[in-house]
């Protein structure tokens, strides 16, 4: 007689007869014996059991196969490489596919019997489901690299080292079973085995529900709250993986307010999810599967480059797991690809533009997935970012266990926004999608702009500050977007050997805008406090004869400029929204992704749809350098949708509209307009540096009287001598014309401030130099 009993978990009952583990003729599954009616005999025998330690009267031989265990650079279990042991060996005697399901030691007093079966795979073994190398089979094979690790010690040492595991010595629901002690996550001699999660005899009280023999909930039952494990509410995974508690429960992938999308019928059926499962209910199972596709890493669901559906093996491709939902054609969620679908379609940025980050293995020189995190903060060795290891993966910039749908990384409340607050009073504080990632903060030993003058060190920022955390830049965790960007786009990644442009797939081609190598943006964006405002400095990197009224300039990615409208002699009309706020100019800050990202419309850096529309971020673009608008030597008059004019008013800077532009003097209050009128067109790179991140002179002005180490020349070298041709020497000079003899405060420029400083130039200045000399710019190239 079968005994049916109820456990403390009211949704589980011990009733093997009604499960797929009943392989007899009465099985409810598709794999059944042809004539054998006994249920228990397929696993157990009262006599002549297999001589295995602690085996429960086991009626099958243990597999003699050699296994490839799960491993990763971030796992902290020291004994992970050991051969599977304990009760896991019993499970594998069926699930590795090496022994026929009907092969038992004893049947009706006969030994070494093979029970005739139907519905099995070739040779009578476990059937392949959707295919041996897919994530939708339970014929696991002997390569367990895509399966949750087993037979490793789970103790306080492991929990403390990992940082996101519950300590079994502090939790009553985890531990070794003993008389009177029945934890719902049982360990065997302090080790995790298959039976820590699964009980092969149980089913749900609703016989139609596929619980995968899990002791605890397969899905999140109620809104997650973080903190202590709630057996009645939480998904099975959270019993061990606390994921920093509320850091996970409030994340965009767990919070019901944002993770409210519903699985399509087809996707739910493939995953054996109940109909109408929501993303927050699927929880960990959205992205992970304990028995995933062969070739994936870190148990990522469908995380390979296989093109089949479902995926059949392939090479590790982390981004494919993300594209499942973050695409227009994934077919996983109801409404996916539609106009009102809230999940950002990131895949299209990587696949449809001219340039994109090197996210696929074919984009990367190594031709395999180099990305390899070390811990829960997803920190990676900086050697993985250099030269032949150059790559990007989604988790280089985002921590999917911590991201929130909020304008601020430390946001609280129910504000739902896909990016930062792109409005007046603009800051550079990281948004919710960057919460919990890791980055670096440069430490400078000098204020000089010199490609050879590297930061003296970098401070690693990692961890999660939590809701309401401090936004101070000195915090130990990431508080700014640039901290994430600089870990790749500075010497932190590549030392003194910057990568060559075009050396990865999707990259801007070598020589574009005369750029051959990546520039060091930690140097470029440096924002020295002593260079704020309109000041004279002697350490900008300019030659000493050009220090008066001169200072470094930078776009305010790291720090504010202090150059207000009053200092600049400008007003709100000079700027596009949101940069035109009354007290904002000179005090506001910006993101790298205000310039870098997919192409945007006329006069704006905001993607279509605003903060909840097309993705923000430098994923890919139809423009070179993953810019939101075109930028080359022709940017200027006639190109109103080019990059500069996403923020700077086109009419003020590239036409003869009048008004003030900061560049003015006794002749005209807007010398941009004046030159546009006199010459008929204007090009930004004639007078301004070609990589406008930051520069040694004020207002990003080139000075061909003082070209230096940034162009491989001694400081104070004069170029473009006795020629009307523009000077090009990448990356900073691209068809440059301007020579400055004296720097002036905004609004006080004179024509005599421009011209040759003397030999080897022609020595002329003012209108004579501009119009009639051998270096004139009457008909600029």
Question: How are the SSEs placed, and which strands pair?
Answer:
Layout: E1 5-6, E2 12-14, E3 32-33, H1 87-95, E4 103-107, E5 110-114, E6 117-118, E7 152-153, H2 156-162, E8 174-176, E9 185-187, E10 191-192, H3 194-197, E11 202-204, H4 246-249, H5 265-271, H6 279-282, H7 318-323, H8 347-351, E12 355-356, H9 394-397, E13 439-443, E14 457-461, H10 481-485, H11 491-494, H12 521-524, E15 553-554, H13 565-568, E16 620-621, H14 650-654, H15 671-679, H16 684-687, E17 694-695, E18 727-729, E19 733-736, H17 766-771
Parallel strand pairs: 8-9
Antiparallel strand pairs: 1-2, 2-11, 3-6, 4-5, 7-10, 12-16, 13-14, 15-17, 18-19
Notes on the protein architecture:
By secondary structure, this protein is mostly loops. The chain has a domain at 1-215. It is built from 17 helices and 19 strands. Mean pLDDT is 94; it is low at 1-10.
Query: Which residues form runs of ≥5 with pLDDT under 50?
Result: 1-10
Largest sheet: 3 strands, antiparallel
Q: Calculate the mean pLDDT score and round it.
A: 94
Number of helices: 17
Task: Provide tags for this entry.
single chain, 781 residues, little secondary structure, three-stranded antiparallel β-sheet, two-stranded antiparallel sheet, 17 helices, 19 strands, 12% helix, elongated, disordered N terminus
